[in-house]
Amino acid sequence: MATAAPKAMGDVAMTDGSVYKGVEVEIPAGTMEEVKIKVDGKKIKLKSELIDHLILWHKDNPELKHFMVYSGRREIDYEKNLDKIEDYKKWFVLMVPGEYVSIWIYACGIDVGKKGINMSPCNNKYGYNTFYNLWKKGDNNPVFLKFNRKQEKMETWLARFLADDPEFAARVLDKEYRTTKYKDSRRFGTMLCPMYLEKIAEDYHPKK
Prior knowledge:
Layout: E1 7-14, E2 19-26, E3 34-39, E4 42-47, E5 51-58, E6 61-71, E7 74-77, E8 82-85, E9 90-96, E10 101-106, E11 111-112, E12 117-118, E13 132-136, E14 143-144, H1 151-161, H2 166-173, H3 182-185, H4 197-203
Antiparallel strand pairs: 1-2, 1-5, 2-3, 3-4, 5-6, 6-9, 7-8, 9-10, 10-13, 11-12, 13-14
């Protein structure tokens, strides 16, 4: 038996500049290529690639809004000399805005409760993963922050990816952004966030 998609209220901005405002939206996740909305009681299917962005909220908590986009994702592996765009576009939720880099969650495991929307995957079936992505200002796609049990491996990757701020990169390698307690790594209710990404979004300032 199929599980009904979670629903929210939202504004749906299209790439042609038109906007569906205050409509019911079936919250997209994963690689969904269509989004269903309801306008004046009529159900409409929209192609994800024609949606510029979504702004969603719980009907009983309109102050708390979630910003979503449908985008390709870039994978960078410095050890393997790999830099590629993944095969399928995905839905992402903005977690932490930043002036020069923002933090995005891969939309998966979304749950709508009585008073809000939980956009953070927390079910054990997703295994060990961060689900986090870094989107630099001016880049076309977010970049996947791959999980590694050895935090120093993640720090080395971060320092290289954000090397255009040398002072910041040095602080990363000095373990300044590392979580030291298990409960801190799950502070957002998500599967393993072993870095203080919210501080990274605030502190990173590339040198021109």
